[in-house]
Fold each of these.
Amino acid sequence: AQTVTQSQPEMSVQEAETVTLSCTYDTSESDYYLFWYKQPPSRQMILVIRQEAYKQQNATENRFSVNFQKAAKSFSLKISDSQLGDAAMYFCAYRSAVILGAGSYQLTFGKGTKLSVIP
Amino acid sequence: GAVVSQHPSRVICKSGTSVKIECRSLDFQATTMFWYRQFPKKSLMLMATSNEGSKATYEQGVEKDKFLINHASLTLSTLTVTSAHPEDSSFYICSARDFGTGPYNEQFFGPGTRLTVL
């Protein structure tokens, strides 16, 4: 079974600064997808960014980018020019690319990192 | 973007009663829906996966008879917490997989339902 580890329960960043959230995972599969989700105080899960394992290029979405190191099984999220609205819980998630039966498409989540943004 | 709604957003009930939570995909067809439970300051725990027209697949440790899931159409799945007890109090989140999103088969999440059992 796959596992996702987020080793930083809490992080803080000064507004306009850059912060990196860590995520490592364990899998024996070669093809998979990785995601970062944001959960603000409203509790609505919002997809921040996603990465396909077979793509070497790191995904980027505006101020959000990832550092995907497949060999190291690492998938960190970098938030540039942090804004107050970035304050939230951030979850790293893994999904297998293998489609087999009812368990397909399931996401495995890490425990989350609570990000605070200091004005 | 794809929208998933949940109803109710908050429910308070007495111990021993049953509560039904609805999850709807508003602008897409959801072949698969997922139900999660989230405790305060914790991650999401997958409870079950439901496919339209078939029985739900429950994760280990989740009581099928307590958490009844019905996925009767491509836009609606329901979770019924039967004979609810205080320990069932939690935040329940559903997500729906958009059949037409290509290789990512992205899940879209509902806003969640806060269940409090007195």
Amino acid sequence: GQQLNQSPQSMFIQEGEDVSMNCTSSSIFNTWLWYKQDPGEGPVLLIALYKAGELTSNGRLTAQFGITRKDSFLNISASIPSDVGIYFCAPQINSGGGADGLTFGKGTHLIIQP
Amino acid sequence: DGGITQSPKYLFRKEGQNVTLSCEQNLNHDAMYWYRQDPGQGLRLIYYSQIVNDFQKGDIAEGYSVSREKKESFPLTVTSAQKNPTAFYLCASSMGQTDGYTFGSGTRLTVV
């Protein structure tokens, strides 16, 4: 089966610092999605990547779909307190067989120290 | 406004009792999903349904059951056969394969 590795597992940073996290897999994917989960809530989609090499920004967030189609990274610039939460990657194959369940990385827990 | 609603937010049950978690969406999405979240485990797929009256097991379906009698509703029953039911349960829906998921706000189930 496919292996999906998300790192780091947790990050302790100071407000204003930049953040970088990534996901790597043993399989090739057609889509990479990045989600953020606030404490006690459901995840919310941040960025969707549909093409190898694609670099997409959403405000202070930047994500890239790796050229090999086996990895993706998410960067957050100038972190603020509301960035606290768990970030998940969710790659997708899009095989045409229907809306199967997404596989999620184990998450990166972002903690901002005052 | 369209969205996906899970209820209740917190649920307590005694060991050995079945319990049903509600999930309703008014987004007209075809597909619906149930995930379980444990600390350090990420999100694990329990069941999913692509259309009404059809559903498939996910990675950790043992001890759970679902139904999809209406497009809007996908309730999850945690049965007494589930050995470790205490967890945060998330329901999601999507229109199609390439779309992201819309998640509910979750139900935290505690079995004592």
